[in-house]
Give the backbone structure.
Amino acid sequence: MEAWQFRRAAAADVPAIMVLERATFVNDAWSERSMRHEVTSEHCFYLVAFRPESPDEIEGYAGLLAPTGSTDGDIQTIAVAPGARRQGLGRALMLTLLGEAQRRGVTAVFLEVRADNPGAQALYRMLGFEEIGVRPHYYQPDDVDAIVMRVEVVAPRTAWAENPALTEGGEQ
């Protein structure tokens, strides 16, 4: 298993993100303008992943839209470089975004995934996402359906919350 480091993405990361974006999403890549807007938006949280010895070489990125005060969040995008796939990076990026969603008070996170991407679907199911619908012909120009998925973001529970004797001032 490789060791990656994460940092919050900045506008300066957009050119490197776009190299991976265009390579991963050949027919439906976002525009650089759209990506820059997302990365710099106060309502979004974007991460980049890199190997410690190569901080300028982006191996993956992922983004969450979760405006202040909203209880819903959306995974906007996630991509992992071909050489870094199947090593846990996508899972780590997703878990980090879900942690940020929780920190922001989000209670449900949604995403769309291509119907022809069973690997991503399996990852999302492993993380607790459930299919809630289909958006026909969502991905263009490939004319591929999007599967809409949702996961509840549960607040962590501590021993204090689980043990009524402790919450009532009792000692154990």
The chain has a mean pLDDT of 89. Residues 24 and 58 are 13 Å apart (CA to CA). The helical segments are 14-24, 32-40, 89-103, 118-126, 159-162, 164-167.
